[in-house]
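Cross-posted from the bioinformatics board.
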Amino acid sequence: MNIQFKKGVLELLVLALLKEKDRYGYEISESVSKKIDISDGTVYPILRKLKTEGLVNVYVSEDSGGPPRKYYTLTKSGDEEYRKLKGEWNSFVENIFDILEEP
Amino acid sequence: MNKQKFLSELEKELNIRDIDGVDEILADYLEHFEYKEADGYSELEICAKLAPPHIIAAQYGESAVEEKKLKPLNVAGLACMGLLALPIFAFLFGWVAVLGASALSCFGLSLGLIFDFNLGGVIPYIPYFGSLVLGISVLALSILAAAGTIYCCLYFVKLLKTYIKWNEFVAYGTKNRNYPLIVVYTTKNKKFKRHMRRITQTSLTVFAVAFLLGFIVLVIHARSFEFWHVYNWFVD
């Protein structure tokens, strides 16, 4: 798959995964890697960028008996950004389909 | 490439690009390796699937291209804040010092109780068996206090580091701010956490049990619930 497609949509995917539930870094990385063929570890710089921009928050939590883990959670502005990006992606894909379907 | 080489390469590349919070970034990738290894991958396989260190470092650097220029008004404000912050941090670390001193004095007292020597006549009359058991209880208390000292010290140091980082961000008017997490126990030192937890739980238990036992022993020996009156503890 074209690498430019993949890179553009990664941020949206991370936000979408966090919209569903709070997750820790590795969990997000694996979820994305399962569906899209990208290098591992591409997710971590994105998470940091999202944190810097205030779109996600971090907290440390531990499941009983497990090691302490850094969990990421969507902030209010993160949720708004997610909706915005999702809308942009959907219209983008729609427009592409329009062009591709023209004979 | 193996894990060690990858991480040291990554550290080097991040430092070349003068990126903030290198420790946290490395901790993320160390954690990645650990989880992958737990899933059965070898170090070589993990490294093969990871992008090369210089590419990863470049991605972190993408949003960090900012010119560092001091803002004099901000610095003045920070200096004023500092006047407030100074006594607060002095208080926090003073507390650590107090806790540490308590640990030391409890330790000294416990030695006196256990080995039956009276430093400066501070310890009143206690029949030896009671003294031994109470001594053990105070020894456990001193270990508990020492653990508390270590924990508080580490926590306040992190607090101080974050405060300093905030000062740096405000002084330069940095837009993209990455603060270190204020937690004592991280993925990097979970073994330390396990030890601390075990030490705290054991010493708390020993303290409680020995204290209760000592109390009971002395009550039996003095044939009174207020054995401190029988032994004339608070009489000049």
